[in-house]
């Protein structure tokens, strides 16, 4: 059975706005959303006065807004992140009721945490949940949030960046399908992340932090490491690629930068693994068919 999958997309289209309106008209969806009337009125005004197909800049006023998509690229909800000082607050709604009970809320929370801590550099992420919203309470607790305060109406939960990183590493160590990275690759990639200007590099930083680190001599020969060549199945298309550093990337020669969407996605996975990964305009289903060459297996530890 596939794991619950959510990707958060920052682009908000006119069609997305119409979906949001539908969700916010559903009393069962907005029951615990305190400012739903204001949000609904704002969206209605935007749709009425703005004829642009892309409305991202309007939705990012006062915070950052993301549409939540499932693995079939169908919008199922949204996440809003509002940063004040070093703290950030998350608001999450799964608006498509047909998807309730599939643990997509917890998946959306994890994606929100990734953005808050790695891209927005928050020190603490907070969530205010209505005391009767059992589904949301359970999802935030499942993701490791701790109760910070409570009132008769609301429970306030929080996650610090230190706790998040610790839980991320502990979860990786217990996950039989986790990813592996060599000590050498981690050191080089960590230096790369510190210097890279691309905003999407936070995805690579997340993968580095959650990976199980091993010595080069200990990594299995069927794992994709830096400078490996691998045969992939991208959706229904077989593709041979080499995973390289940005300065060596050449798409026409199949040399994928580790900072690219597919490049970041395959790092640390092994033959037979499946990965669902959102690239800018869609979600790709990736299978590692075969590792054709790995420098560690060949004894080339210093490539």
Descriptive overview:
- Helix content is about 35%, strand content about 30%.
- With about 300 residues, the chain is an alpha+beta fold.
- The chain has a seven-stranded mixed beta sheet with strand order 1-2-3-4-5-7-6, with helices on both faces.
- A hairpin with a 2-residue loop joins β3 and β4 (about 85-95).
- The mean pLDDT is about 90.
Keywords:
303 residues; seven-stranded mixed beta sheet; five-stranded mixed beta sheet; 14 strands
Secondary-structure blueprint of this entry?
Blueprint (H helix, E strand, L loop, with lengths): L6 E3 L4 H11 L2 H4 L5 H14 L6 H4 L4 E6 L5 E10 L2 E8 L9 H16 L4 E7 L3 H9 L3 E5 L3 E7 H14 L5 E3 H13 L5 H10 L1 E3 L14 E6 L2 E8 L10 E3 L3 H6 L7 E6 L2 E12 L10
Q: Name the helicity range.
A: 25-40%
Radius of gyration, in Å, reads 20 Å
Largest sheet: 7 strands, mixed
User: What sequence of helices (H) and strands (E) makes up the elements?
Assistant: EHHHHEEEHEHEEHEHHEEEEHEE
DSSP, total strands: 14
Given the C-alpha coordinates, what overall shape results? globular
């Amino acid at each position: 059975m596939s794991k619950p999958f959510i990707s958060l997309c920052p682009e908000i289209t006119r069609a997305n706005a119409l979906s949001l309106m539908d969700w916010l008209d559903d009393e069962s969806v907005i029951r615990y959303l305190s400012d739903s009337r204001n949000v609904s009125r704002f969206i209605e005004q935007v749709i009425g006065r703005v004829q642009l197909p892309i409305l991202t800049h309007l939705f990012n006023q006062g915070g950052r807004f993301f549409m939540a998509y499932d693995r079939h690229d169908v919008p199922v909800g949204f996440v809003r992140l509002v940063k004040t000082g070093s703290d950030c607050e998350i608001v999450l709604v799964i608006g498509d009721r047909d998807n309730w009970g599939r643990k997509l809320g917890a998946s959306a929370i994890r994606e929100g945490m990734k953005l808050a801590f790695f891209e927005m550099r928050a020190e603490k992420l907070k969530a205010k949940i209505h005391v009767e919203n059992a589904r949301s309470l359970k999802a935030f607790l499942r993701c490791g949030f701790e109760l910070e305060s409570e009132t008769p109406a609301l429970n306030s939960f929080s996650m610090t960046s230190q706790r998040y990183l610790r839980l991320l590493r502990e979860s990786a160590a217990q996950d039989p399908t986790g990813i592996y990275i060599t000590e050498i690759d981690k050191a080089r990639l960590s230096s790369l992340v510190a210097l890279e200007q691309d905003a999407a590099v936070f995805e690579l930083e997340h993968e580095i932090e959650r990976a199980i680190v091993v010595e080069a001599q200990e990594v299995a020969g069927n794992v994709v490491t830096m400078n490996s060549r691998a045969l992939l199945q991208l959706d229904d298309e077989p593709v041979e690629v080499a995973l390289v550093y940005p300065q060596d990337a050449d798409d026409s020669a199949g040399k994928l930068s580790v900072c690219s969407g597919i490049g970041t996605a395959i790092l640390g996975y092994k033959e037979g693994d499946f990965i669902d990964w959102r690239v800018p305009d869609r979600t790709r289903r990736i299978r590692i068919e075969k590792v054709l060459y790995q420098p560690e297996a060949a004894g080339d530890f210093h490539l």
